[in-house]
Amino acid sequence: MSSSAPQGTDRHRLWSVDEHLADVLAAVRPLEPIELQLLDAQGCVLVEDVTVPVALPPFDNSSMDGYAVRTADVQGASEEFPAVLTVIGDVAAGSGELPTVGPGQAARIMTGAPLPPGAEAVVPVEWTDGGTGGGAASGMSPASAAPEGAAGEVRVHRPAAARAHVRARGSDVQAGDLALAAGTVLGPPQIALLAAIGRGSVRVRPRPRVVVLSTGSELVQPGEALTAGTIYDSNSFALAAASRDAGAIAYRVGAVADDADTLRATIEDQLIRADLLVTTGGVSVGAYDVVKEALTAVSTGAEGVDGAGIDFRRLAMQPGKPQGFGTIGPDHTPLLALPGNPVSSYVSFELFVRPAIRALMGLPQSEVGRPSVRAVLEADKALASPAGRRQFLRGAYDAAAGTVRPVGGSGSHLIAALAQADSLIVVPEDITCVEPGTELEVVPLG
Question: Residue 164 CB: number of other CB atoms within 10 A?
Answer without folding.
Answer: 19
